């Protein structure tokens, strides 16, 4: 699959950062504050990756209005935990630096709220590598991965980037489906939060940053 890519899109949670501790602890507090039973640790982990609006409805059986309320509570809880309980996966910062140095434009495409994503990239001094950073809109009208990938490609194109040979790097089937819906291949990483079954949706699967680097840089 090694080829010359014109642009590379990265997911954030489970791909660049290990954010599960911050997300699951914030979710647990959210359920407590809402007076709902707190899901098990494994159940909470399933919330990492998909749009949160969908996750609250699918996994917790909330109505759309209840999910909107839950998101507001969750975001308030997560704001204080994000930088404390989040870490960049080993080798990722160096890989992003190499991609940037090679002149390949980078975009972030995450279901996390866009402002939160920008803050996390800035906190870890990674924002400088990205031409575009796209996340869920504040009102959740843009939250599906398909729409987020489309917006990332559009923002790259506006800056003059050739997106005809773009690729998506993520860890969940949502990343692969979002990429394929926009006509680009997807590489899934095994160090994230996806299950083995989700790998079937990917064009390629990698188990290390070294292996990922070979596919992206040759």
UniProtKB/TrEMBL annotation:
<dbReference type="InterPro" id="IPR023198">
    <property type="entry name" value="PGP-like_dom2"/>
</dbReference>
<dbReference type="Pfam" id="PF13419">
    <property type="entry name" value="HAD_2"/>
</dbReference>
<dbReference type="GO" id="GO:0005829">
    <property type="term" value="C:cytosol"/>
</dbReference>
<protein>
    <submittedName>
        <fullName>HAD family hydrolase</fullName>
    </submittedName>
</protein>
<dbReference type="InterPro" id="IPR041492">
    <property type="entry name" value="HAD_2"/>
</dbReference>
<dbReference type="InterPro" id="IPR050155">
    <property type="entry name" value="HAD-like_hydrolase_sf"/>
</dbReference>
<keyword id="KW-0378">Hydrolase</keyword>
<dbReference type="GO" id="GO:0016787">
    <property type="term" value="F:hydrolase activity"/>
</dbReference>
<dbReference type="InterPro" id="IPR036412">
    <property type="entry name" value="HAD-like_sf"/>
</dbReference>
<dbReference type="InterPro" id="IPR023214">
    <property type="entry name" value="HAD_sf"/>
</dbReference>
<dbReference type="GO" id="GO:0004713">
    <property type="term" value="F:protein tyrosine kinase activity"/>
</dbReference>
């Amino acid at each position: 699959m090694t080829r010359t890519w014109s642009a590379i899109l990265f997911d954030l949670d489970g791909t660049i950062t290990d954010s599960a501790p911050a997300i699951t602890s914030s979710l647990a507090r959210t359920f407590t504050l809402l007076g709902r039973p707190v899901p098990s640790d494994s159940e909470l982990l399933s919330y990492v990756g998909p749009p949160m609006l969908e996750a609250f409805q699918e996994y917790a059986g909330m109505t759309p209005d209840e999910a909107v309320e839950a998101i507001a509570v969750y975001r308030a809880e997560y704001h204080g935990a994000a930088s404390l309980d989040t870490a960049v996966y080993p080798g990722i910062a160096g890989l992003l630096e190499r991609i940037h140095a090679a002149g390949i434009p980078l975009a972030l495409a995450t279901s996390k709220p866009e402002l939160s994503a920008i803050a996390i990239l800035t906190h870890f001094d990674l924002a400088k590598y990205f031409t575009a950073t796209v996340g869920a809109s504040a009102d959740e009208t843009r939250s599906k991965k398909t729409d987020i990938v489309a917006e990332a490609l559009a923002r790259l194109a506006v800056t003059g980037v050739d997106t005809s040979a773009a690729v998506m790097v993520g860890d969940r089937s949502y990343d692969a489906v979002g990429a394929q819906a926009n006509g680009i291949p997807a590489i899934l990483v095994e160090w994230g939060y996806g299950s083995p079954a989700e790998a079937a949706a990917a064009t390629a699967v990698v188990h290390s940053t070294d292996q990922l680097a070979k596919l992206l840089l040759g």
